UniProtKB/TrEMBL annotation:
Its cofactor is FAD. Residues 230-378 form the Acyl-CoA dehydrogenase/oxidase C-terminal domain. This is Acyl-CoA dehydrogenase. Keywords: FAD, Flavoprotein, Oxidoreductase. InterPro entries: Acyl-CoA_DH_CS, Acyl-CoA_Oxase/DH_mid-dom, Acyl-CoA_Oxase/DH_mid-dom_sf, AcylCo_DH-like_C, AcylCo_DH/oxidase_C, AcylCoA_DH/ox_N, AcylCoA_DH/ox_N_sf, AcylCoA_DH/oxidase_NM_dom_sf. Coiled coil: none annotated. The keyword Cytoplasm does not apply. It comes from Laceyella tengchongensis. Residues 6-118 form the Acyl-CoA dehydrogenase/oxidase N-terminal domain.
Length: 380
């Protein structure tokens, strides 16, 4: 096995590292306080041809791979998790379902402007009563002579305030076995009856956009169906496999950023006449943090590599997301502990990392759901 990155992947890592430190990091604390969405960052990323990074050039992408996408999410999240999750959701949830299931006309109409950064990608699956039980969707779409009429609501939807359109699921019928048939639709966010509500007060990720969607008699034409009628839930589960690689990479990035802050603080902070980094208790904490991050990163890259090879990666996506998110929580907790009282203060940054990281154990399926998937995949 070759663990070296390719020349292109190394170039992307350097580009994203320089961009993250030069453009994203300087305003991260201020954006966290003010809860301001950094639209200008994504405009600059569009100028660098990053908004369609893993998609083919013929749809406006950069023709890179999933490993490069994971590297990009990690580097952004290392300095600002809000920026990392915005980018991850744009690529893996906003662009991917249109790329995977859209017609050629839909790709040209919707995917090209997404990859060019002319709009942000979003994905409407979760509902107030259908989170882990995503099959419990209550949003409904009824067909008439003019197309479809959609009624319902979605919650915890990333990027919707900055999306001109998004894919979402709705119940369109019932199978002979009595199961609800769920279909995916591409819906313009400015359609009459469509409301995007951005009023959630979150624990962390303050400068990312997390919304609720309300659809009251929203009418879309027949060609708004994404993929096959009745296959929307299956399509979105496939989409979530890719999304879990993004969340795993985000968790690795947050953990790396928190670890670096803790290491630098331990080297500089003096107690009892010597730096904290000379105390064995602190050394062991930092050694464990470094080890866990390296292991998580390796498995995120493995899941991404499997996806790039066209091989099955459902189990590996769940494993990388589960492991990376849980070790990131541990790393951020220890980073705060190493900082002592200062770790509880906003100016020392690890407090932000600690608040932001919790979402990685929830988004794209909770840790409990990941364990269910892994158990199913190993034949339990």
């Amino acid at each position: 096995m070759n663990y070296d990155l390719t020349a292109e992947q190394k170039m992307i890592r350097k580009l994203l590292r320089d961009f993250a430190e030069g453009e994203v990091a300087p305003g991260a604390d201020e954006r966290d306080r003010s809860k301001r969405f950094p639209i200008e960052i994504f405009e600059k990323m569009a100028d660098l041809n990053l908004m369609g990074l893993p998609f083919p050039e013929e749809v406006g992408g950069a023709g890179a791979d999933t490993v490069s996408f994971a590297i990009a999410v990690e580097e952004l999240s290392r300095v600002c998790a809000s920026t990392g999750i915005t980018y991850s959701a744009h690529i893996s949830l906003g662009c991917a379902p249109i790329y995977l299931f859209g017609t050629e006309e839909q790709k040209q109409r919707y995917l090209v402007p997404l990859c060019q950064g002319k709009t942000l990608g979003a994905f409407g699956l979760t509902e107030p009563g259908a989170g882990s039980d995503a099959g419990g969707t209550r949003t409904r779409a009824v067909k008439d002579e003019n197309g479809w009429v959609i009624n319902g609501s979605k919650c915890f939807i990333t990027n919707a305030s900055y999306a001109k359109f998004l894919a979402l699921t709705a119940v369109t019928g019932q199978s002979d076995e009595g199961r609800r048939e769920i279909t995916a639709f591409i819906v313009p966010t400015d359609a009459p009856g469509f409301q995007v509500l951005d009023n959630l007060n979150k624990l962390g990720l303050h400068s990312s956009n997390t919304t609720e969607l309300v659809l009251e008699g929203v009418r879309v034409p027949e060609d708004s169906v994404l993929g096959e009628i009745g296959q929307g839930f299956k399509q979105f589960l496939i989409t979530l496999d890719g999304g879990r690689i993004g969340i795993g990479a985000m968790a690795v990035g947050i953990a790396q950023g928190a670890y670096e802050l803790a290491l630098n603080y331990a080297r500089q902070r003096t107690q009892f006449g010597r730096s904290l980094s000379k105390f064995q208790a602190i050394q062991h904490k930092l050694a464990d943090m470094h080890m866990l991050i390296e292991l998580a990163r390796t498995y995120v890259y493995k899941a991404a590599w499997l996806k790039d090879q066209g091989r099955k990666f459902t189990k590996e996506a769940s494993m990388c997301k589960l492991f990376a998110s849980e070790i990131a929580m541990k790393v951020c907790n220890q980073a705060v502990q190493i900082h002592g009282g200062w770790g509880y203060i906003h100016d020392y940054k690890v407090e932000r990392f600690f608040r932001d990281v919790k979402l990685t154990e929830i988004g794209e399926g909770t840790s409990e759901i990941q364990r269910n998937i892994i158990a199913r995949e190993i034949g339990c």
